[in-house]
Each structure stands twice: as structure tokens, then as C-alpha cells.
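Course assignment 3, question 2. Fill in each field.
Student: A.L.
Task: Predict the tertiary structure for the chain below.
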Amino acid sequence: MQYALQLAVRGLGSVEPNPPVGAVILSQAGQLCGEGWHQKYGGPHAEIHALAMAGENARGATLFCTLEPCSHFGKTPPCADAVIAAGIRRVVIATGDPAPHVNGQGIARLRAAGIDVQVGVCEIAAGRLIAPFVRLHRQGLPWVHAKWAMSLDGKIATRTGESQWISNEFSRAMAHQLRGRCDAIVVGIGTVLADDPQLTARPAGPRVATRVILDSRARTPWDCQLVRTAREIPTLVAVGPMAPEEAVRQLQSAGVEVLKLPAEATSHRPSLVVLLRELGRRKMTHVLLEGGGELLGAALDGALAQEFHVFVAPKIIGGKLAPTPVGGLGPERMADVLQLSHAHWQSLGNDLYLHGDLSTD
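Answer field:
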């Protein structure tokens, strides 16, 4: 099952809004005879790839699958039927499929056909892998990644706003890989005005992310890189109720989609949670928040971020006017601060990369 989980990871960025899935088949003699993973949205599922590789060796064999085989007709026929037809004797499943159109029906169909089914092997690891899929189905919200690069003393720019470059080329390359796996990249208007970013993955990843700007008053410059390339790369500006109509029309005429959102109760900013619900409605599974501090602070204050990517450079900027990565109100007590789980550090040249999430398993 561990190998099946490794295979499943290969589909990240290519299969969404479907979950990543891996499958391995062992013959009656205990030999690996089939393997596969869900490679792209709309394409054959992991079980189908594994069965095709196994051929006749699938008869009487054991299938290890990271997710319950589907039992419905969607873009592909039911995998449970293919497993039954291949003569698989035993199926070991890491975790059930929480989608309403499956939700135990695949397991029931296999058992009704006389197949021995075991569920729960490596269940925690499999659950973490499909957590974004589960969140989208159950809450209608995407899985939110928060990312920032900072100096050793926790600054994201100098007091004049200069930030290029805090992190090194290895950190920036990893950040581009992350962009290439996400459905949307969100920044605040302050980041656009200060940095004029492209918000693209270089080199291109498996996904082309929609670039989203939270901009209450539609101040996004018509000549910034995001607007100039809006006809080639999807670009959305989320504005508040007080945004000037002329500025909105100017953005729309350049090919920018303008989304009018209600303001948050405690500020003039467009509501981040309403934006995320809209992105979830569009079946966007992974959303990357790149800053600045107001945006990340709003996300943390609202408990809207699930996964964190922090790049720390061995540089000291100093100065009380130099901005920090996370604004917002923050908690009053240490007992209420966010504590990352599954956190690990990785060296990227002289930089350090911290990756963790807020799961409780």
C-alpha cells in the first residue's frame, strides 16, 4: 500500500478536481504484476491502468488501492465492475470514497461479487492525500495553501517595500512548482502595486492557475503584467461594493474577469471566505495564497488556510517598519496559536523550507 500511495502522488496537479489514486496488483504468487495511478482528469482511473498491466495475471490476484473503487458511470465506467470482471480475488483499500455517488457503494459491489475486501490499511496517510478532495465535496471550499518567503528576523521586505530577492533560486524554483499544481493563485492589491508580479509557474506546471487579486477599490493598474496578459492567462479581480464602475469597466475591457464581493464585516476588504466559496463552486481544489500580510492575516484569522509553505533566508533586514508576512488580528493567548502538524524542514541551498499543515491526525 505504501507503494500505491507513492504512485498516487504522481497525479497531483493533473487529476483535480478528482482525488489522486494509486493501485498495485500482486499475483497469486505474490509477484508485482500491475501498477498504475490516476494520471489526468477524465482519463482512466488507477485500477484500470493496473489491470491493463496485469492482464491475465489479475485473475485470483490481490489489488491494493488507495481509494475505494468507484461504482458509477462518470467520465469513465465503474472501476468496481472492471475489478470484478478481471477476476480479482481480494481487494485491500486504504480509505473509502466520501463522494456521495460512491460512499461505500464500490465496496458493497465488490463484496456482493464474492471478493474479499479489507479497508483501512494506511488509512491516515491516504486520508491526508485526499483531504483537499474531501474538503471540496463536504464544505464546498478549496484546500488553501499559504506561502511566503521571509528573512531570518521575519521580514518580507525592507521598510521601503523592496523584496526581490529574499529567497534564493532554489526556493523560488520550489515556489514555482507549487504554483504549477494549484488552480488559483491569490494576492492582495498591495502585492500587485509593490511587485507587479506575473503569478505564473516557470517552467509551466501541469495546471495553469487563475490569477486572483483581492482589490476592494479596483486599483489594479491597467498596465501591470497581470492585466496585460489577462487574455492569455485567466485573471480575476475581486472587488468590493464601493469599487468605481469606470475602473471595473476598464479592467473588463482588458479581458479581466471582475467579481463583485461583499465586504468583510470588520474591514473594507472583499470577503475572502465568499471568494473561496466561489472558487470552490468552480471546482478549484487547490488555492495558493501568496500574500501580502493583510491577505494572509485574514486567512489565518478566519481559519481558512490548511497547508503552509515557508521559505526562510539567512538574511536579517531589521527595522520596525519592515513588513512581516502575517497581519490580521491574531489570537490573544498562546493556547490559541496555530500549531502545524507533520512539519518538516528542508535545506534549499542556504535557505530553509518549512512545510506543514493543520491536520489533527
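Instructor remarks: The domain at 141-357 is CATH 3.40.430.10 (Dihydrofolate Reductase, subunit A). The two ends are 19 Å apart (CA to CA).
Grade: pending
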